[in-house]
Design brief:
By secondary structure, the chain is of the alpha/beta class. β17 (about 410-415) and β18 (about 420-425) form a beta hairpin. The protein contains ten helices and 18 strands. One of its GO terms (molecular function) is metal ion binding.
Length: about 475
């Protein structure tokens, strides 16, 4: 027969276990993260950012239910270096990748992959207990080295297309998508889908149907639209009645169909019971393009009042839409003019996941801003960009720098040119260069350009002077 003291011990253990279980059940679960990245979407191409012609009802609704940024910046002015900033949390002047391709000996321009010792968002969140998936355009690899692909950089499930013989690999069919690095995994048949993003969203559904229910997930949707190299889509009817030039109808259709995929994903998460505990972030990798066999960014006023487009470090090339939604955390119908950019997302996601910010990142967590708390102001943001030499002359080296300090924006194209200065509070279109009136601010910009950076292979400081068309010696 047990003594009274033994019964008391048993009751205490039962009480403690029940209390601990109750605490465990009441502990907030780590939120899921759904990151949505458009490809070459301009600042003015969504209804919630002033677009009056192209229809984007799902993203407009997302902005209404969440937080809309007016002064958010891409990592750089083209795909690869911008995504490198996003993936590593390192601003462009410290990043390994500063252009779509780097300059090497014998007039060769080649893709530059992230270094193996550079932590990616996938690797960081996987270490924090997240299920990780990447679907779409990676653009941060060496095509000949599968260890640099998304499937080997922290993503449990990775779907990406591959391309580019001139960058060191054989020419792949862009309709073929590799799953976890395996060739011929799945093929995009254009007439079976409205567009490539429609196809990829279905792949995301397949992934979500198989996730572990008790673990958070990080899903990175790297959409195709409205990049100019998707020259044809399956939906031939949308906007067909408008009488627009074919390139413009295609451009508008891709944006509206992208918007539709965002709605499909959100509905899917709601049906799964996951949306209430999911941070949703939507943005673009750089400004609008002038590509796609005839598309003109002026046709739909793709940049609103901003100057410049893709490949420019004026506002039009790097200021992008940014929408954040998180039920119960982010107040609906809110707007912020807080100045931030891609390098800030890694520290933000780290804080959300409850882990230390990786030492490599020089970004600032904007979690306080998202949740309505006091947010630390940034001293400055800066960019360093190298045009590649394929099919273009570069007498100034194709080297571009920019920085933003509060209301001030400095821009320099080529080391031999003067720094331009603009007051964005009064001149958002960067039409009135006031450099002569503010020598002290010019000196601050110069100091940032010269000291807030590091050298990296393939992207020499000052660029690559080139007065002839580069020859592709890899063909």
């Amino acid at each position: 027969m047990k003594s009274i003291s033994q019964y008391l011990v048993i009751l205490f253990l039962i009480f403690t276990a029940c209390t601990n279980q109750k605490k465990k059940d009441n502990e907030p679960k780590k939120p899921n993260i759904l990151f949505l990245l458009a490809d070459d979407l301009g600042f003015g191409e969504l209804g919630c950012y002033g677009q009056e012609v192209i229809q984007t009802p799902e993203l407009d609704k997302l902005a209404k239910n969440g937080l809309r940024f007016t002064d958010f910046y891409a990592g750089n002015a083209v795909c690869s270096p911008s995504r490198a900033v996003l993936m590593t949390g390192k601003s462009s002047s410290y990043n390994t990748v500063r252009g779509n391709s780097g300059s090497f000996s014998d007039d060769r321009w080649m893709r530059v992959a992230l270094k193996k010792d550079e932590l990616t968002l996938g690797e960081m969140l996987k270490s924090a207990g997240y299920q990780t998936a990447f679907i779409g355009k990676w653009h941060l690899d060496d095509p000949t080295d599968i260890s640099t692909w998304a499937s080997n950089r922290g993503f449990d499930y990775a779907v990406q297309e591959q391309w580019g013989s001139r960058f060191g690999g054989k020419q792949y069919d862009e309709q073929m998508h590799w799953i976890n690095g395996k060739q011929d995994s799945v093929y995009y048949h254009i007439n079976e889908w409205e567009c490539k993003d429609d196809f990829r969203t279905n792949l995301a559904f397949g992934y979500l149907d198989k996730i572990q229910k008790d673990k958070p997930f990080f899903l990175f949707m790297s959409f195709r639209a409205p990049h100019g190299h998707e020259y044809e889509i399956g939906n031939k009817e949308i906007y067909s009645e408008k009488g627009w030039p074919a390139a413009e109808r295609l451009h508008a259709a891709k944006i509206t169909l992208l918007d539709k995929q965002v709605g499909r994903l959100l509905n899917k998460l709601e049906e799964m019971g996951k949306l209430d505990n999911t941070l949703v972030v939507f943005t673009s990798d750089n400004g609008p393009h002038r590509e796609g066999r005839g598309h003109d960014p002026e046709f739909f006023n793709s940049n609103g009042e901003l100057k410049g487009i893709k490949r420019d470090l004026y506002e039009g090339g790097i200021r992008v839409p940014m929408i954040a939604f998180w039920k119960g955390k982010i107040l609906p119908e809110t707007t912020t003019n807080y100045i931030s950019g891609f390098q800030d997302l890694m520290p933000t996601f780290a804080e959300i996941a409850g882990i230390n910010v990786p030492a490599q990142s020089n970004g600032t967590s904007i979690l306080p801003l998202l949740t309505g708390e006091n947010q630390k102001e940034q001293d400055f943001l800066n960019w360093e960009f190298q045009l590649d030499g394929w099919s273009r002359k570069m007498p100034d080296g194709g080297f571009r720098q920019a920085a933003r300090i509060g209301k001030w924006k400095g821009v320099r194209y080529g080391l031999s040119n003067e720094i331009e200065l603009y007051n964005l509070d009064t001149d958002i279109s960067e039409t009135n260069n006031v450099a002569d009136e503010h020598p002290e601010m010019i000196q601050k910009m110069r100091n940032i350009f010269e000291t807030q950076r590091a050298d990296t292979d393939g992207f020499p400081y000052g660029g690559v002077i080139q007065n002839y068309k580069a020859k592709d010696k890899l063909q």
